[in-house]
Each structure stands twice: as structure tokens, then as C-alpha cells.
Write a structure and sequence with these properties.
The complex is a heterodimer of chains A (about 240) and B (about 280).
Chain A lengths: L6 E5 L3 E5 L6 H17 L6 E4 L3 E5 L7 H12 L9 E9 L8 H8 L3 H8 L3 E7 L6 E4 L14 E4 L3 E5 L2 E4 L4 E3 L2 E5 L20 E7 L1 H12 L6 E5 L2
Parallel strand pairs in A: 5-13
Antiparallel strand pairs in A: 1-2, 2-4, 3-4, 5-14, 6-7, 6-13, 7-10, 8-11, 9-10, 9-12
Chain B lengths: L1 E5 L3 E5 L19 H10 L8 E5 L4 E4 L3 E9 L3 E2 L2 E2 L5 E4 L4 E3 L5 E9 L29 E2 L20 H4 L2 E6 L8 H9 L2 E7 L3 E4 L13 E2 L4 E4 L5 E4 L6 E2 L3 E5 L1 H7 L7 E6 L3
Parallel strand pairs in B: 12-20
Antiparallel strand pairs in B: 1-4, 1-11, 2-3, 3-10, 4-9, 5-8, 5-10, 6-7, 6-9, 12-19, 13-14, 13-20, 14-17, 15-18, 16-17, 16-19
Classes of the chains: A alpha+beta (about 240), B mainly beta (about 280).
Chain lengths: ~240, ~280
């Protein structure tokens, strides 16, 4: 395993922030997630929480003060990580209908990028994406690895009503709106699948580090899957990957 | 059971928060002023984390459909039971049919209503704190019926009566640690952030408080990173934003300061145009 030069900063009363170099890449993300799982294993205290983002990890302790011993403890956990074990992630196939009735910004993107919408759809649905972060809204997935041809800045004025399941393009990333919300990403399609469900023990099926692949479906298929989702019989296609 | 005759401006059910789901983008939430919500529970012999009603600025009208005991702490919004004014920070007996209402705001902005045993509204992912798309509704509405626990025998901790409740509201000092990007501020900015008085803008809610005074930002944006309740962010347009209890879990603005828990509680009782001053905790 590649070992990075990490920065440890005390953050507030009871947290420690760990920072990786400021580059967005898969090897850093995987390294963060590996460190996270080792910390969780080492801390039997259920009131210690670890959260991650692109280049950082935050450990929040239940005690209202943290000392330098905690930093040493974390450094030791990081040092002891061995590369023997392969990291395994889920790979999800998510159906998306790119019909312009859902892809409200497809016509705009066609002009702005000078690429035909069929080409945008084919570029968007041909790549495999990595989940780098979940946030902004409960269950909002930030997906990296989009074809540079369809990178496009977010809208200057956010839309007030983006539909649940909408798929958007924001800069170099693509993302999925888990619920109806305002938002600034350019909307190109919609998935009928529920990606965030408070009734599940783990409300978000997909985790940071997982791979997401979109497949293009027709309006008819969209409606069919919607019915299956509503009747609780739809199951997302999921396989394991050590990529 | 409590019947909500009028909901008030913005009333919600809150406990001390929903932990362990931040990595899915779910904020912790919980009472804004936990100093006050914990006292209201302690007065009734409840557990600190029992669910309370957070009442903001204009209070609700509530009809109790069963016998219980209540306490009201935090902001003084002139509470009355059956139109008779009642005191804050003490226990009141409630009979079936009693009406609790509120009047003029005297100090603070958020009041906490506890009932014996706590509210027993639906728990989602380990917490009763209301939040959009997590709980069925994100605020209390007219006509709601709220379940409460059966009346408890009360054992009050005698220490609770010795607390100076008003002290919590008097100060304008907001205690902070340096945030992860504090050291990137210029010398003059590091000086100014503790010397200047700041005022709270009209853009203040459970998610965040924005401050009015511009604060020049020459910092580079950061790659979306992790934030907490009480993180002070500096936006590209030069505004300081203090994240509160319903904060988003990550953000891309430099994090210049971090409030301590007590400062978050105190700030929760401030509102538009109130003045605050940051005070550094050395560590």
C-alpha cells in the first residue's frame, strides 16, 4: 500500500482532522477508506465516529477533549496498515432514462458543449464512476470519472425544484439527487430507483468507494421499473469488485 | 397526547441528535441550544437526550389531552397556562384540557418545552429530531397530535436549581478554536477576526448563521472537506457563515474558526442584528 504524508489537526473540542495531499484521485480515496475501516475496527467505543471526504477524514470522539495521545494512536493505526488485504467495493448498475422530459438541461448542454445529446448520453452512460463523497443532501452521491468532453460548470442560478432521482452534471462530476430539492447541477436524466430509504438499516445503499455504472433505459422501461420500485420488488444489479 | 392548535413560527421536536449517518449526508441536528434543552429535561427528571419541543420566537398554542408535568426553559416567550402567566425554569402541573400558549418575546429566541418522560414521536435512525426527508415532517403543523410518555415520578437533581439561567443570554462572547485553514489568513485578518464586532444577518436558521460584516477573502478554495456543527466558513464573496445544528456534512469553503459546544448553545439564542465577538480558546 502506498503510504501518504498525512497532516493531523485538532479540530474543535473533540475531533481530529486527517488530511491527505490536495489531489482528487482513486488511490487517495481508497487509502482514506482503508484508514477509516481500520480506525473503526480499533475503536470499540460506539461513540467514536469517522467521516470521510475527497482528501480528508474526521474522527470525532465522545469525550469533550482530545489530546496528543489520540493523534499518536491514529498515527500508529495508519502505520500498521498492511497491503495484504484487497479492498472490495460494490459495483452498481443504475438505470437512467435520458428522455428530454427528464433531462431538462440536455438541450442547453447540447448547445453549450457543441455535442449532440445522443453523444452526451452515450458518453455519460459508457463510463464507470467512483463514489467520492456523499453529502450536500442525505444520500447525494458525488461521482468522479466523467468523460472530460461533457464537463460543464454548475448553473449560476440554481433550479428550485429538481426531481427525486435526477442525474446531473456539475463541473467534472456527475451526481444523483436522492430527493426533490433545489440544486445547481445540469440535469440530463432521471433514475426510477430509490437510492436513499430511511426504512433500511443502512439508509443509503451505496457507499463511498463504490462503483456506479448507468444504463440508458426508455420511457416505457422507466415506467415499468417505477412500478416495480413502488411494489418493493425491484432489485438493483450489484456485483463485487476489487478495482 | 398534545393537540397542536397553532404551530407557532417554527416549532420542531428535537433531541440531542442523530449520530452515525453523517457519511450518508445526514446532519446530526438536535436542539440548537442544548444547554437549555438539557435543563428542561433535568427539571423533570428526564434523560438529557429525551425529545423536547424547540419553539422559535413566536410560540405555539398547545392543548394537553392528558395529565402531565412540563417545564419551559431557554428564551422567555411569556408562556401562560390557561391564560395565566407562568415562570420559566420550574415544573408546572398540567391537567387534561389545559392550554399552553405564548406571548411577547422578552429575551433569547428559542424556548424548550419538556414533558414528563419526553415526547414519544417517531424515532428515525436513532433520533426523533425533525429534518426534511428524514422524518415525515420537518416541523410541527396546526392540527398535529403529538404523543408523550406517561407521567413519571420526578426526582430533581438539587444542583439544577443553582444554575444562573440568565448568564447564558447576557454574553456576546463566542468562544472559538482556530479552524483548519485559520493559519492561511493574513496577519491583519487574524487580528481583525478577534477585534471586530460582528452582527448576525437575517440569513439565520437551524442550518447556519451568516454574519453581516464583509471579511476580505484571499484564501484559495479547498477541495470539499469535512465540517461540523459550529464550523465558521469564509465564502468566496467574503462572508462569514457559522454552521449550526442542521449543517451540511461537508463543504468547500475555508474553515477559519470552530465554535465550542457552549458557544453554539449561546449563539442559538441570538438573532438578527445581535452583536457577537469571537474569543480565541488557546490550546
Amino acid at each position: 500500500m502506498k503510504s501518504y504524508d498525512l497532516k493531523y489537526k485538532k479540530f474543535g473540542e473533540n475531533s481530529i482532522l486527517v488530511e491527505w495531499p490536495s489531489i482528487i484521485c482513486e488511490s487517495i480515496l481508497k487509502n482514506i477508506l482503508l484508514f477509516k475501516s481500520e480506525i473503526v475496527k480499533a475503536h470499540l467505543d460506539i461513540n467514536t465516529y469517522v467521516k470521510t471526504s475527497y482528501n480528508s477524514l474526521l474522527v470525532t470522539y465522545s469525550k469533550k477533549s482530545v489530546d496528543s495521545i489520540k493523534v499518536t494512536e491514529l498515527k500508529n493505526i495508519y502505520k500498521s496498515i498492511r497491503s495484504i488485504k484487497k479492498q472490495v467495493f460494490n459495483k452498481w448498475v443504475i438505470p437512467v432514462c435520458y428522455d428530454i422530459s427528464f433531462g431538462k438541461d440536455l438541450v442547453f448542454l447540447e448547445k453549450s458543449l457543441s455535442i449532440k445529446k445522443e453523444e452526451i448520453i452515450s458518453l455519460h452512460s459508457s463510463k464507470e464512476y467512483r463514489v467520492y463523497n456523499i453529502g450536500f443532501l442525505p444520500g447525494f452521491l458525488y461521482l468522479g470519472g466523467m468523460d472530460t468532453k461533457i464537463h460543464h460548470p454548475r448553473k449560476e442560478k440554481p433550479s428550485l425544484n429538481i426531481e427525486k432521482g435526477a442525474i446531473g452534471i456539475g463541473g467534472s462530476q456527475t451526481g444523483i439527487y436522492p430527493n426533490k430539492s433545489p440544486g445547481g447541477w445540469n440535469i440530463i436524466g432521471r433514475t426510477p430507483v430509490n437510492l436513499f430509504d430511511i426504512e433500511n438499516a443502512s439508509p443509503c445503499l451505496i457507499n463511498s468507494g463504490d462503483i456506479v455504472k448507468f444504463i440508458s433505459i426508455s420511457l416505457e422501461q422507466y415506467q415499468l421499473i417505477s412500478i416495480e420500485v413502488e411494489s418493493n420488488i425491484y432489485e438493483l444489479n450489484k456485483t463485487l469488485t476489487d478495482d | 397526547m398534545i393537540e397542536v392548535i397553532k404551530s407557532g413560527l417554527y416549532s420542531t421536536i428535537q433531541d440531542l441528535g442523530r449520530f452515525g449517518f453523517e457519511n450518508y449526508g445526514v446532519p446530526i441536528s438536535g436542539s440548537m441550544d442544548q444547554f437549555s434543552s438539557i435543563i428542561s429535561n433535568k427539571l423533570l427528571g428526564n434523560k438529557d437526550q429525551d425529545a423536547v419541543m424547540e419553539i422559535t420566537m413566536t410560540g405555539p398554542v398547545l392543548k394537553f389531552l392528558e395529565k402531565t408535568k412540563i417545564s419551559i426553559t431557554g428564551a422567555d416567550i411569556s408562556p401562560s397556562i390557561n391564560n395565566n402567566p407562568v415562570k420559566l425554569n420550574v415544573v408546572h402541573d398540567i391537567n387534561k384540557g389545559d392550554l399552553l400558549s405564548f406571548g411577547k418575546l422578552k429575551y433569547g429566541i428559542r424556548s424548550y418545552l419538556s414533558v414528563s418522560g419526553g415526547f414519544s414521536t417517531k424515532e428515525v435512525m436513532g433520533s426523533k429530531s425533525m429534518y426534511p426527508n428524514i422524518t415525515k415532517s420537518f416541523r410541527i403543523a396546526n392540527g398535529d397530535f403529538l404523543k408523550i410518555k406517561a407521567l413519571n415520578k420526578i426526582n430533581i437533581d438539587p444542583e439544577i436549581t443553582k444554575i444562573d439561567y440568565l448568564e447564558h443570554f447576557k454574553t456576546n462572547k463566542i468562544k472559538v478554536f482556530k479552524g483548519p485553514e485559520f493559519d492561511e489568513l493574513s496577519g491583519i485578518q487574524k487580528h481583525n477576526i478577534f477585534k471586530k464586532n460582528f452582527t448576525i444577518s437575517n440569513n439565520n436558521n437551524r442550518m447556519a448563521f451568516q454574519l453581516n460584516e464583509p471579511f476580505v477573502n484571499q484564501l484559495n478554495p479547498i477541495i470539499t472537506s469535512l465540517v461540523m456543527q459550529g464550523t465558521v466558513q469564509l465564502t468566496p464573496s467574503g462572508k462569514l457563515i457559522i454552521l449550526m445544528r442542521d449543517n451540511q456534512t461537508c463543504g468547500g469553503y475555508p474553515r477559519v474558526l470552530q465554535l465550542n459546544e457552549s458557544a453554539i448553545n449561546k449563539l442559538s439564542q441570538k438573532y438578527m442584528n445581535n452583536e457577537i465577538k469571537f474569543e480565541l480558546i488557546e490550546n
